[in-house]
Each structure stands twice: as structure tokens, then as C-alpha cells.
Amino acid sequence: MKFTDSPVIDLQVLNSQLSFHQDNGSMHVGTSVWPCSLVLVKFAERWHPQTCAVTPNPYSDILNFQNKRGIELGAGCGVAAMGLFLLGLNNVVITDIAPVMPALKHNLKKNKPVLNKSLKTAQLNWSNQDQIKSLNPPLDVVVATDVVYLEETVGPLLSTMEALLGENGVVLLGYQLRSPEAHKKFWELSGDMFDIEKVPHEHLHPEYAYEETDVYIFRKKKKQ
């Protein structure tokens, strides 16, 4: 089920408005806008340390993107990376597989007047070690939304997260159950590799707190 059939999805981030073209008729899921990307961006906006009035802000360190390097995995239309860029993640690379790149680049070009620059993109297959190394890890922030839906890609996805993430970095994960098999495998394996924090649902943006969608924060387990 697609999130919406509308050909254009708009997303307000602070005082800017992003607009995304999607193609629900494509054979690639990456050409559609899925809800987790919107939920993650609006969560980050709600708790952004420069605008959040709540004291103490439990996410101030995580969402302070100043001088941090980031990457989005399986970016699709690039919603999460562009939204977080507007929230200060200025050094970010947006990645996906080759067939999805035209849709990603189209949306980057469409939003260039809002972003005021051309964001970096790279092809990334999670099983391609050369492509992973070319991204010059470690990185501070790894972003992934709606990427767990095929059981066979769970292992490569988690290995890529681990390979890219710095010892003190975080994975910002937007998650919704798409496949029971992939779901089971993902949570079995991820707990062995990461310390996992689930964001309370009441901490999501009230207008983007979909019942079936969650945000998680992953950190590398410290070596004993």
C-alpha cells in the first residue's frame, strides 16, 4: 500500500517548504514517498535544539548537526536527507541504487531553490564493499527510513550501517512493519550490533505521529 497516490508531496520544515514528485506506478519502491521519512523529519524539527523550547531537551545532542557528516541509506526521493539538511545536517550524502537515482536527482533539482545548493549523491548497494569504503566512513549520522521490507537485504543493510557509523555516531531510523519475515530478522540481528532507543510516540510531531510508524535511535555497542 502506498502512503498516498498524490503525485506531489509537500513538507514544511521550519520556514521552508520542500516538494517531492513521486511515481507510484514505477516498479521501484524508491520512487514513492513513504511516511517514515516525513515522520522522522518532523520529529527532528520538533526537538531541534535551536527552536525547541523544552528544557531539558532529551535530543539536543543527537539533533545538533553542526559539523557532523551524514548519509541517507535507501533515500528514494530524498525526503529525509533534504529535511535534515534544512535542520543543519549540511554535510550529507544521499544514496540509493542506480534505478532510483533519476527520481532522486529530479527531486533534488526541484528543491534546489529551497536548499540553495546541490546536495551530494552516490550510488550505494549495501552489498558493495567498494562503494561503502568510497563514502569515507566513519560518519556521525546515518539516516534510514522505510528500508526494512525485504528479508534478504536485512543483513547487508545492518552491516552497512555498522561499517559507516562512527563509534559515537547515531542511526536515525524511521520504521514501519512492512514484512513479518524482514521485521523478525531485523530486530533479531540489530540488537546484537546496536544499543537501541525507541522514541516515545508522544515525542513525535503531533501532526506526524502515525500509529504504525516509529522512530528509533541506534548507537554502536561499546566494545568490551
From TrEMBL:
GO MF assignments: protein methyltransferase activity
Protein name stated in the entry: Protein-lysine methyltransferase METTL21D
CDD domains found in the cross-reference section: AdoMet_MTases
Record carries keyword Transferase: yes
Coiled coil spans: none
Organism: Nicotiana tabacum
Keywords: Methyltransferase, Transferase
Any one GO biological process: methylation
PANTHER family associated with the record: HEPATOCELLULAR CARCINOMA-ASSOCIATED ANTIGEN (PTHR14614), OS05G0564100 PROTEIN (PTHR14614:SF7)
SUPFAM superfamilies linked: S-adenosyl-L-methionine-dependent methyltransferases
Residue ranges of the TM segments: none
Signal peptide: none
